[in-house]
């Protein structure tokens, strides 16, 4: 849900100093919903881009979530919670969200099952949007992006696969450095960076919906046990299969 909130300047999600390349856990089943979500976000962005610059701005202004205009009694404003989840403000914004979803989402879908995973994803995005509205109620700029829902997936992954490792690209001066970081450390650093930025920088100065990310991640932590299939929950939490050799 978060990530991009200023359609006129198209500030992208640029707070990451660590970029995930892949994780060390392979999904045991084909992830149709995760791939459909990636395809849907990509197709919507391609449609946005086909409208030209002014059309691009207008569609974001129309279907993006505007906290200052939001009213629970207005069905269209409720719809923008979900329409904004499938729109992005630029190529990097789209690619960073979809790549993250590609890396982590297949494993979470494997544990939840496709139907539960879809509901979980949309619910995490919805709560992320509500968190964004709560912390920035006077914001007039439309907010777009899948980041809040993706953050929910990260929260679920944090608890389901703490022993996984994330192959991470870290730029050290001008030299690429690739390192395997335990998932609970990688995602823990990511979460606390969102909290720190939300408290110190804020929405208005950065154009990034930090609190949507935080709300989505916490939703993932809270709901993962309810959505993970019982026969797969013990495997995820208790067996040692997630510790790479």
Strand arrangement within the widest β-sheet reads 1-2-3
Q: Quote the beta fraction.
A: 5-15%
Percentage of residues in helical conformation: 55-70%
Uncertain stretches = 5-15, 237-245
Q: What is the domain total for the residues?
A: 1
As a whole number of angstroms, the C-alpha radius of gyration is 17 Å
The CATH topology annotation reads as Rhomboid-like fold
Mean pLDDT: 86
Topology as H/E string? EHHHHHHEEHHHH
> What top-tier CATH class fits best?
Mainly Alpha
Helices, by number, come to 10
Structural class per helix/strand content? mainly alpha
- How would you sum up the major sheet? 3 strands, antiparallel
* DSSP E strands, number: 3
> Ends: how far apart?
36 Å
**Shape, please?**
globular
CATH architecture annotation: Up-down Bundle
How would you describe the overall organization of this protein?
The chain is mostly helical and 245 residues long. It has one domain: Rhomboid-like fold (Up-down Bundle). It is 60% helix and 9% strand. It has helices at residues 32-50, 52-63, 75-83, 91-112, 114-135, 147-160, 183-200, 202-206, 210-227, 230-238; strands at residues 19-23, 165-172, 175-182. Strands 1-2-3 form a three-stranded antiparallel sheet. Helix 5 packs across helix 6 (147-160). The chain is globular, with a radius of gyration of 17 Å. It starts with 18 loop residues before the first strand and ends in a 7-residue tail after the last helix.
